[in-house]
Amino acid sequence: MRHGETDWNAAHRLQGASDVPLNENGRAQARAAAPVLARIVPVKTIVASDLSRALETAHIIADAMGADVVTDQRLRERSYGVWEGLPEAVLRSEHGEEHTRWAEGLEPRVEGYEGHDAVAKRALAAVADNVTGDGTHMLVAHGSTIRVLICALLGMELASRAIATLGNVHWAELENATADDAPGNWVLRRLNAAGDTVSA
Fold it and tell me: What is the rounded CA–CA span in Å between residue 88 and residue 97?
C-alpha cells in the first residue's frame, strides 16, 4: 500500500526521501480504508517504511485490525537528490530533458538520484526478510519504491511504465503460490485497489 496524502502530494511537489508528514486528508484516506482492509487483509503485523507518512498510515490501519507495526527503512521512497521539494511544473520547465528521461522510465542524471537497481535491491531484501511463511502480508511504502518492487517481483524491466504508480492509500495484491519467492515467481492479482472499489 502507498501512504496517504501529504501537502507535497497535493501541491505536486516531489517528495522522495524527504520526511513529509500526512495531511488531514491523508489521515482521512487511511481511516476510510482501514475497516475494508481489516475485513479482507486481517494481518497481525504491518511492515512500514520508517518515513512518517507511511508509518502513520500503517498505524491508522493497524489500529483497525488490532495489528502491530514494524518498520523497515529499506521500504523508504527513493532519493531524488536535488529534485526533492520541487514542483512538477519546475521540473518540466527547468529540467526539461532530464524530466523527460524520468517520465519515460529512464534514469535522470540528477545529483543524489537513487537508481532503479539500488531501489529494487533494498526493497527485495525487505520482502525476503519480512514476507515469510504462509498467509497474507502487508507492506506500507511509497509510490516509486512500490512500482520498482512490483516490476522486480514480476521479473519485468525495472524501468517499465507498464506498472502504474499507486494512488494515495491504494494498494496492489501479489501472490506467490510457489515455494520459491524469487523474482519472476509472483503474480499480480490487483493493482491500484482502493477501499471504495473493493468489497469484503
Answer: 14
What pLDDT digit, counting tens, does each position of 130-144 carry? 998 888 999 999 999
For residue 25, tell me if it sits in a domain: yes
Domain that holds residue 12: 7-193
CATH code, domain carrying 55: 3.40.50.1240
Identified catalytic residue from 3, 95, 142, 170: 3
Catalytic: 170?
no
Dihedral of CA atoms 111, 116, 120, 123 in degrees, nearest 10, equals 40
* CA–CA gap between residue 81 and residue 161 (Å, rounded): 21
User: Is 77 noted as a catalytic residue in this protein?
Assistant: yes
Of 77, 95, 116, 170, which one is the catalytic site residue?
A: 77
pTM: 0.94
